[in-house]
Amino acid sequence: MTRRPLTRVKSDLNSIFDEMDTLLKPILASSHPEIHEHLNAWYPAVDLVEYDNHVLLKAAIPGYRPEDISVEVEGNTISLSGESRPVNAEDKASRYLMREMVAGRFNRKLQLAFDLVAEEAKAEFKNGILTITLPKAVQAKKLKIDII
Prior knowledge:
Layout: H1 5-31, H2 36-39, E1 45-50, E2 54-60, E3 69-74, E4 77-84, E5 104-111, E6 122-126, E7 129-135
Antiparallel strand pairs: 1-2, 2-7, 3-4, 4-5, 6-7
């Protein structure tokens, strides 16, 4: 099986960027502490579906426990945040050869074009997927007023 020529170039460029990331993150973080949090930023992937009377939000948050996650709703804004501790190597004699599992803090805000009813929200966390059902607030109805 032959590889496409650009596949090799893409792979090489990805390796270069990975190496640069590994080398530069500590330097940038120590010389510019204000950007340290942004260098390590992670945001959960989200699906947001609108129905007639509610919205359904699903967020992929693997490796977190329900008590690690916070959900807040205010008006038309949904805020997701959480913090998880990294899983450490089993013993002092071991070391990571690769570490890609997510740990740390995240913050994500989603703004909608309509308000939500936070008091009637329902949330469930199962197999790393947070599912939230949020009813839409009743909007003022537009009425035509006859002039007599």
